[in-house]
Amino acid sequence: MLRSFVRSLLPLSLLAAPLSAQRPQPADLIVTADRIYTVDDARPIAEALAVRDGKIVFVGAKQSAMTLKGSTTRVLEFPGRTIVPGFIDAHAHLLGLGEALRTVDLTGASSYDEVIARVVARAKTAPAGAWIQGRGWDQNRWGDTRFPTHEALSRAVPDHPVVLTRVDGHALLANAKAMAAARVTAATRDPSGGRILRLANNEPSGVFVDNAQELVRRAIPAMTRDETKDALKAAAAEANRWGLVGVHDAGETKAAIDAMEELARSGALSLRAYVMIGDDSAAIAHYFARGPQSALYDGRLWIRSIKLYSDGALGSRGAALLDPYSDDAGNYGLLVSAPAHIRAVAIDALKHGFQVCTHAIGDRGNRVVLDAYQAAFAQASVADHRFRVEHAQVLNFADIPRFAELGVIPSMQSTHQTSDMYWAEQRLGSGRSLGAYAWRALLNTGVVIPNGTDFPVEAVNPMRTFHSAVSREDERNWPPGGWHAAETMTRDEALKSMTIWPAFAGFQESVLGSLTPGKYADFVVLDQDIMRVPAEAIMRTRVVGTYVGGKGVYGEGNH
Q1: Domain region containing 77
Q2: Which of 535, 531, 422, 432 is nearest to 483 (CA)?
């Protein structure tokens, strides 16, 4: 009797369907761990997730997930491990990392002599007359913090043209051979938005700041398409090693984007690239004609944003400031683009459905961008533009609320604060430094902050990003309590800044950024729980495995 009553309540379609048709299809993959942080408010913590066709079909209890196990389902169990959504670096340079992996690594060099020694070691194995490139020197780490001059480098390596890029990418050091190849002399003038540092006799010192770098770089032989693709693949593999499943590539040439698209089309790109078109009128016109491109090749490539530059960098005193540098009287930094140019490109981008992401570090540089965006919005209003300021590093207090008011996203890099804090107050003074790296002040206005590393400016490791965001301490946990500790993020905010907030900043939140049914199965397995371990232990966290679309691209179980 009861059975008949229950059957009377069931839809006829279910009564007619065979039992096998009522069961969901088996999952391709089931993954379990001690704790899974989903970054999904509907189900923040889970024990298991299930994947079918590269997308998540279930997140929840292990027992429930196992009901989706079929004869061919692969089960990966990670006892004692923690799973989080795959990390997305919201501001990085993929080809720059690939190039850095092929060149002389100068990061951490504690003196100019050490820089030269590393270059000399490379010169011993380089073909005769070959260009030698390096990246990562930072004079602020040396006993003598003045910019170097080329003479010592030129004496040590006289037969190879040498170009060494500063850690921030906003200055380079060239030896005499490289300057000769580039035909740079005392008569060469400073370009707009750039500066050639000079010796007492007016000869170039070897250091070229911001737009002046191109005077030397134009002489360096370009990489071939195959070399570019190899560099991009190597960079993607390195990113995967640290738990990255996505990268917002902050400014590439059309040639580099073409190479990236070839890799994505062939299935050889092991992460999801949200690539910004560099500030080149021909390239921008090409992509405007093509239109915004999203989730190409199974979600491996997005081409719908443009990268512009407002100013230089703080470390090389090229960031544009409203008042002079505290340690360089009379120097206000450099505007590398005219404000009218930023405004014009922004208006065109709005009309064509493209996002604009503009580099701005100094308080004047940031104000110029906000003003240009505001003027563009007045002429070409779009409800959901998601325009960005890349770095938003030093802000005048009056400009902090403008991000929320204009709907502009501050895309920031928490490790820049821990790298710069040793000398930032010398550049800015104690009062102005209160508006620098001001994450909490911005978050309190209601904006989101997509986080990144700016690699190869900083190390790829997202644990540095997370640790610095929640502690404002360096990798040695200094200074105790953090530098301007009131500006820290919570751990929940820090994790969002590396997952769902970058996804939002790239119009990807419907498919990326959280472990939610229907989204791509992009996740990272960690050897400890970064949400609960003491802050001083975060940097000891190691990546066990990185998965993109449910397929391992690094670590255990990736066969």
Answers
A1: 15-86+514-559
A2: 422
Look at strands 194-198 and 171-174 and give their pairing: unpaired
Q: Where is the domain boundary, 195, 217, 239?
A: 217
Please report whether residue 5 resides in a domain: no
Q: Which of 105, 148, 113 is nearest to 459 (CA)?
A: 105
**In terms of domains, do 389 and 518 share one?**
no
Q: Residue 516: helix, strand or coil by DSSP? A: coil
* Residues 6+ positions from 10 with CB-CB distance below 8 Å: none
Sheet strands (E) in 253-312 = 272-277, 293-295, 301-309
CATH number of the domain within which 134 lies: 3.10.310.70
- Whether residue 230 is contained in a domain is answered as yes
In a domain, 174, yes or no: yes
Q: Answer yes or no: are the C-beta atoms of 465 and 498 closer than 8 Å.
A: yes
Residue 538 Cα distances to 84, 383, 514, angstroms: 14, 39, 21
Residue 196: what are its φ and ψ, rounded to 5°? Answer: -95, 115
Phi and psi, residue 306, nearest 5°:
-125, 140
**Which residue in this structure is represented by tokens 């073909």?**
127
* DSSP H or E segment with residue 231: helix 225-241
The total of other beta-carbon atoms located within 10 Å of residue 273's CB is: 26
Residues whose CB falls within 8 Å of the CB of residue 247, separated by 6 or more in sequence, listed in order? 88, 89, 92, 94, 236, 239, 271, 272, 273, 274
Residue with tokens 């004609």: 289
Tell me the pairing of strands 45-52 and 301-309: unpaired
Which residues does 234 contact at the CB level (< 8 Å), separation at least 6?
Answer: 98, 101, 102
Q: Can you tell me the distance from the alpha carbon of 431 to that of 264, in angstroms, rounded to the nearest whole number?
A: 47
- Residues with Cβ < 8 Å from 120, sequence gap 6 or more? 156, 157
Query: Do 102 and 81 have their domain in common?
Result: no
Q: What is the pTM of this model?
A: 0.86
CA nearest neighbour of 371 among 349, 348, 338, 323: 338
Residue-by-residue pLDDT tens, the chain, 559 positions = 434 433 443 444 434 444 444 678 999 999 999 999 999 999 999 999 999 999 999 999 999 999 999 999 999 999 999 999 999 999 999 999 998 888 899 989 999 999 999 999 999 988 899 899 999 999 998 999 999 999 999 999 999 999 999 988 889 999 999 999 999 999 999 999 999 999 999 999 999 999 999 999 999 998 899 999 999 999 999 999 999 999 999 999 999 999 999 999 999 999 999 999 999 999 999 999 999 999 999 999 999 999 999 999 998 899 999 999 999 999 999 999 999 999 999 999 999 999 999 999 999 999 999 999 999 999 998 999 999 999 999 999 999 999 999 999 999 999 999 999 999 999 999 899 999 999 999 999 999 999 999 999 999 999 999 999 999 999 999 999 999 999 999 999 999 999 999 999 999 999 999 999 999 999 999 999 999 999 999 999 999 999 999 999 999 655 4
Beta bridge partners of 78: 33
- Residue 511: is it exposed, middle or buried by C-beta count within 10 angstroms (0-12/13-18/19+)? middle
